Amino acid sequence: MRIIAGMAKGRNLISPIGDTRPTSDRAREALFSSLESELGGINNKYFLDLYAGSGAVSAEALSRGAGLVHAVESEESAVKVAESNLELFEKIVGSGSFQVFNSSVARFLKTNISIQYDAVFIDPPYELANDLVTNDLEALIENKFLKSTSIIAVERASKGNPFLWPTGLSELKVRKYGHAVIYYGIPSQNG
């Protein structure tokens, strides 16, 4: 695994041992291309990475100039890898701020941190049921983690059941990258 673009382009990432499935380089590159297109760039944006695993997506956001990156992961070994990756890239990049939360996503989304994110990436284990991901999205809305201009990206298995957005979020586009599908959504205007 490596950083695709930004100030740390080409740098290798530490890979986790175990069942953590990192987002592929191809999917990560496409994700950030879409986010940069929709947001007009990621510089100084607030980025939330749920089910962060190794922190590869968070490190990519930091490398590309995100102002704040929060990574949420419950698996202790993956948290340590994510912290190592992000600490290394913070030193290289020299700007931006990050924090890794050793927490379940559900518990994190109940916290009152008073931050609204510009971009949210959700990459749960593929075996996690879509309705549980929907619960996470509903908590993002209910607890006001989203701006009216936020972009949400959800990675799921391409062979799994189609993902449906809950009330309050609308589908922007869907893109397939090998075994992964990324569903892009935005807050509904009437929602």
UniProtKB/TrEMBL annotation:
PROSITE patterns: N6_MTASE. One of its GO terms (molecular function) is methyltransferase activity. Gene3D superfamilies: Vaccinia Virus protein VP39. The keyword Methyltransferase applies. It holds the Pfam family Cons_hypoth95. Keywords: Methyltransferase, Transferase. InterPro entries: DNA_methylase_N6_adenine_CS, RNA_MeTrfase_RsmD, SAM-dependent_MTases_sf. GO terms for biological process: rRNA methylation. NCBIfam families: 16S rRNA (guanine(966)-N(2))-methyltransferase RsmD. This is Unannotated protein. It comes from freshwater metagenome.
